[in-house]
Design goal:
458 residues; mainly alpha; Serine Threonine Protein Phosphatase 5, Tetratricopeptide repeat; Rossmann fold; 2 domains; five-stranded parallel beta sheet
C-alpha cells in the first residue's frame, strides 16, 4: 500500500499536481520506519522535488538531494533528480556527470539520457547515444520511455546536422505523447472574445482596486523567446524573475467556479472574468502579490511571470492589476513550430504534437492577443525575437525603458545570471544572446507541408 502511495505521488508529480504529490510523500514518510529503503528514498525525493516546484527554493532542494546522494548513492532516482536540479541551477558540468551516474546505475534510464542529450553538444555519436539508437530500433518501449528516448536521439542527430533523421525521431517522440488538440475549442474561444470586443463594454468594467506596478507578464507561444526575455530582465537588480507561475490560472479557475455558482449555471472563463466584481477580484490580486513576496528574500520593484498560456488571460490581468505591464514575444512561426516539435512539453501544449495543430493554434493565439490588445487600456510592449537576438542592445534598452528600469549592462549578458530555470529552455538560457536558432526551420523545409498549408490558408 505504501509503495502504491509513492507511485501515485509520482504520477501526480508528472501531471504537475505538486501539492497532491507532496501529500502522498508526506503520508508515506510519517511511517517511514515500516518501509523498505527504496520506498523511503522514493518518498524523500518526491517530497523534495514537490516542495521545490511549490516554493521555488532551489538551494533547499539541492541541499536535500545532495544529502540523499551521500546517504543512498546507489539509487538512480536520487542521481537523476539531483542532476535535474544542477541543470536548473546552471551547473551544467555537475548535471552531465550526475546524469551519467544515473545511467551507470540504470542503463535504460531513458529520462536521464534525454536530459543529458539536451545539455550536451554532440560532435559525434558516442557509445551511449549509439546504444540508445539501437534500443529505439527494437520498438518494444512504453509510450513514456519511447517519447523521452526518441526526443533525446532527435537532439543528437540535430547537433550532427542529420536533419531527416532528427525530424523522424522528433515526430516519433510526439506521437507517443498524451492528449489531443481541438481546433474548434480554440476557434470558439476567439469568437467569444471577438463578440465581447464588438460591444466595447470590457473597458467599462471596474478593476480590482489594486494599484501595484510590480507585475510584468511575459506572454507568447511556447519556444518564442519568453525565457530569454525573462532572463534578461532577471539580470536587473530590481527584478524578481519568477518563471511560469500558476497563480493566474488558479485565480481564473477559482473565479469561474465562484461566478458559476453565483449565476446558477456553468460559465466560461471569459464570462466569469466579465462577471466578477472589484470585491471578487481584490483578494485574488493581493494573494498573488503575497505569494510572489514569499518566493524569496530581498527587495524588488518588478516581478515577472512568463506563463505562455497567460496570453488568454490578458483581460484578467488588466482587471486584477490595471498598472501591470505586458510583454508579448513574436517569433517566426516556422521556427516556433520546429523548436516546439523538438521539445517535450507538458500536457497543456498538446498543439505542439502535430505541425498542422501548431499552425492553427499559433494563428488563433496571435488573433486572441491582438483582440485583447484592442480591448484593453494597459501597458503593452511587443518584442520581435529576431530583432532581439540580431541586435540585442537596442531591444534590451527598449525593454528596460518600458519596464521603468535604468539600463544595466548585465542585462545584455543573461548567461551570467544565477536565476533558476525550470523550463525546457534551460540549456539555451545559459548561453549568450545569439541568433543561431533564427531560420532553423530551413533545415526541415522538405517536411513542413502540413504547417505551411495551415499558415498560408485564409
Amino acid at each position: 500500500m505504501k509503495n502504491a502511495n509513492v507511485q501515485q505521488g509520482w504520477e501526480e508529480f508528472a501531471h504537475g499536481n505538486f501539492r497532491k504529490a507532496l501529500n502522498s510523500a508526506e503520508a508515506v514518510l510519517t511511517v517511514a520506519q515500516t518501509h523498505r529503503p527504496v520506498v523511503r528514498i522514493q518518498a524523500e525525493v518526491l517530497r523534495a522535488m514537490s516542495r521545490y516546484w511549490l516554493d521555488a527554493n532551489l538551494d533547499l532542494a539541492l541541499r536535500t538531494l545532495k544529502k540523499l546522494q551521500k546517504q543512498a548513492p546507489q539509487f538512480p532516482i536520487v542521481q537523476y533528480h539531483l542532476a535535474t536540479l544542477y541543470a536548473y541551477a546552471g551547473q551544467m558540468e555537475e548535471a552531465r556527470n550526475t546524469f551519467r551516474e544515473a545511467l551507470k546505475l540504470a542503463p535504460n534510464h531513458f529520462g536521464a539520457f534525454h536530459r543529458l542529450a539536451w545539455i550536451t553538444k554532440y560532435e559525434r555519436i558516442d557509445p551511449l547515444a549509439q546504444r540508445m539508437i539501437e534500443t529505439a530500433r527494437r520498438g518494444d518501449l512504453s509510450d513514456a520511455d519511447g517519447r523521452t528516448l526518441h526526443n533525446g536521439i532527435a537532439k543528437v542527430y540535430s547537433d550532427l546536422s542529420e536533419y531527416e533523421l532528427a525530424f523522424k525521431h522528433a515526430l516519433a517522440a510526439k506521437k507517443r505523447c498524451e492528449g489531443s488538440y481541438s481546433s474548434q475549442s480554440m476557434t470558439d474561444r476567439l469568437t467569444s472574445l471577438q463578440n465581447l470586443g464588438a460591444t466595447g463594454s470590457f473597458r467599462d468594467l471596474p478593476p480590482s482596486g489594486n494599484g501595484s506596478e510590480k507585475p510584468l507578464f511575459i506572454v507568447g507561444l511556447a519556444r518564442s523567446g519568453t525565457t530569454l526575455v525573462e532572463t534578461i530582465l532577471g539580470r536587473h537588480r530590481d527584478v524578481r524573475a519568477c518563471g511560469e507561475l500558476s497563480e493566474l490560472q488558479d485565480i481564473e479557475k477559482a473565479l469561474t467556479d465562484e461566478m458559476s455558482q453565483r449565476a446558477g449555471k456553468s460559465l466560461t472563463e471569459l464570462q466569469a472574468t466579465v462577471m466578477a466584481t472589484s470585491e471578487d477580484l481584490r483578494p485574488h490580486a493581493e494573494h498573488m502579490l503575497e505569494h510572489v513576496q514569499g518566493l524569496g528574500k530581498g527587495r524588488y520593484r518588478l516581478f515577472t511571470d512568463k506563463m505562455p498560456t497567460n496570453g488568454f488571460r490578458l483581460g484578467l490581468m488588466a482587471r486584477l492589476f490595471p498598472n501591470a505591464r505586458i510583454v508579448f514575444l513574436r517569433r517566426d512561426l516556422r521556427d516556433c513550430a520546429i523548436s516546439s516539435l523538438f521539445t517535450l512539453l507538458p500536457n497543456a501544449y498538446t498543439y505542439t504534437q502535430r505541425l498542422d495543430w501548431f499552425g492553427h493554434y499559433a494563428k488563433t493565439y496571435y488573433q486572441i492577443i491582438e483582440t485583447w490588445r484592442d480591448m484593453l487600456d494597459i501597458r503593452f510592449l511587443e518584442i520581435n525575437y529576431e530583432e532581439l537576438v540580431g541586435d540585442p542592445e537596442p531591444q534590451v534598452r527598449r525593454l528596460l525603458d518600458f519596464a521603468g528600469l535604468e539600463f544595466q549592462a548585465s542585462c545584455l549578458h543573461p548567461e551570467g545570471g544565477d536565476n533558476q530555470i525550470k523550463t525546457s529552455s534551460v540549456f539555451q538560457a545559459r548561453q549568450s544572446i545569439n541568433s543561431r536558432s533564427v531560420g532553423r526551420w530551413k533545415n526541415y523545409e522538405p517536411w513542413l507541408g502540413p504547417l505551411n498549408e495551415v499558415l498560408e490558408a485564409d
